[in-house]
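Design job #97: recover the sequence.
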């Protein structure tokens, strides 16, 4: 497997894990512009993640996300 194929596979795995963690289908998540940021200690221990959604994201889809803060982000447990 090439490095590119591995990166693509990891992205798909992350996408599926994020969708599951926030209660959306992968198709719904793909309709949103989002980014993920680690919530980590200074020594690199990951406590969880914050998933951020850009302005203009579909409010109908965002309404399906429990725990959405300010319509912009949600905290999730560590993915891996």
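Job complete. Output follows.
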């Amino acid at each position: 497997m090439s490095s590119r194929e591995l990166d693509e596979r990891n992205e798909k795995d992350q996408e599926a894990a994020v969708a599951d963690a926030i209660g959306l289908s992968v198709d719904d998540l793909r309709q949103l512009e989002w980014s993920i940021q680690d919530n980590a200690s200074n020594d690199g221990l990951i406590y969880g993640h914050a998933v951020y959604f850009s302005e203009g994201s579909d409010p109908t889809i965002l309404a399906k996300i429990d725990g959405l803060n300010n319509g912009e982000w949600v905290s999730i447990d560590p993915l891996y």
